[in-house]
Amino acid sequence: MHTLLPHSLILRYPSHPPLLSTMASSLTLPSISLKKLHSPPTRSQPLLPPNSICFRNGVQNFGLKHSDRSRVFMSVSVGSQTAVDDALFSDYKPSTAFLFPGQGAQAVGMGKEAQNVPAAASLYKKANDMLGFDLLDICINGPKEKLDSTVISQPAIYVTSLAAVELLRTRDGGQQIIDSVDVTCGLSLGEYTALAFAGAFSFEDGLKLVKLRGEAMQEAADAAKSAMVSVIGLDSEKVQQLCDAANQEVPEAEGVQIANYLCTGNYAVSGGIKGIEAVEAKAKSFKARMTVRLAVAGAFHTGFMEPAVSRLEAALAATEIRTPRIPVISNVDAQPHADPDTIRKILARQVTSPVQWETTVKTLLTKGLKKSYELGPGKVIAGIVKRMDKGAEIENLGA
């Protein structure tokens, strides 16, 4: 989660343990063919509604470039199956990015503006039907305690962020902005939103995954007492030293680690209650400006979330995942992945792996990102980007 404090950005949100190494596809690619697909639909390529956030890249194809009227795809056939080189997007050159917020960005009243746009309002209606409760009412009217709960806030932010895309679509020049986006990513939960926007899975499948993810993380948090704290004013090396010092004083089961690498001066630490208390007690001696205990269910993005992994793995295995039409940067390794099976593995481990947001933003900026948009509730991501590059051009688009 994340929230904003004076002159600082505070992550009010869960984070992940051992960093997962990049998983490149080991499949060989024996044959490659280029096909041009024109806009008229075929029986295997159904026509999508004009405002749909699902895109027409098939399971066996991945986009090289796209336009309104035609797209170029490359299929790689291996017998009766299709393999995708996971390194397809490794040389991506970002120009325009969509950035999606994570848990902690929620605020009572979000989603109200979206009701003025039919395509956006329909997302909430679908969500209400699928979830079995009135998500929109909680978004608009609260109460805050209910909206802040993990099982509610995750689907609420996912839906509201995609509703923000639909609001943008109706704005003058909005469709052109959407078409120009060539990279996307999201902060933890926001990675699911980014994958839905990029067509890796449908809005409905993404919502099912996010709902289950919230429930599984809440259950894991309930199983062991743990917490998170933001450490403000230190670089990552100093925060690591602080964690090491705290871990020397508590049992291994109460240990702490950096769970979210947000930006210099703002890192979230997760772990057992005693470990978090030791971090808070020692922070001043390490010259930290302050610590802020986060209002989350437990030590997200660490091994404390391990019980959630098997449930996520099963759900992801049953979900149709396609190669994204544009690069989606992973929180786990700050890299884009093209292979659906790799995306499944990455998402399953994401809840136990530290969020590499600082590296992600630095990489985008280094690669020449010109303009980015934060879509959804809150303005935390925009603050992070500005903190890392005061000249960066970023716009907030809520719903």
TrEMBL record:
InterPro entries: Ac_transferase_dom_sf (IPR001227), Acyl_transferase_dom (IPR014043), Acyl_Trfase/lysoPLipase (IPR016035), Malonyl_CoA-ACP_transAc_FabD (IPR004410), Malonyl_transacylase_ACP-bd (IPR016036), Mitochondrial_malonyltrans (IPR052760). Gene3D superfamilies: Malonyl-CoA ACP transacylase, ACP-binding, Malonyl-Coenzyme A Acyl Carrier Protein, domain 2. Transmembrane segments: none annotated. Pfam families: Acyl_transf_1. GO terms for molecular function: [acyl-carrier-protein] S-malonyltransferase activity. Residues 99-396 form the Malonyl-CoA:ACP transacylase (MAT) domain. NCBIfam families: fabD. This is Malonyl-CoA:ACP transacylase (MAT) domain-containing protein. It comes from Acacia crassicarpa.
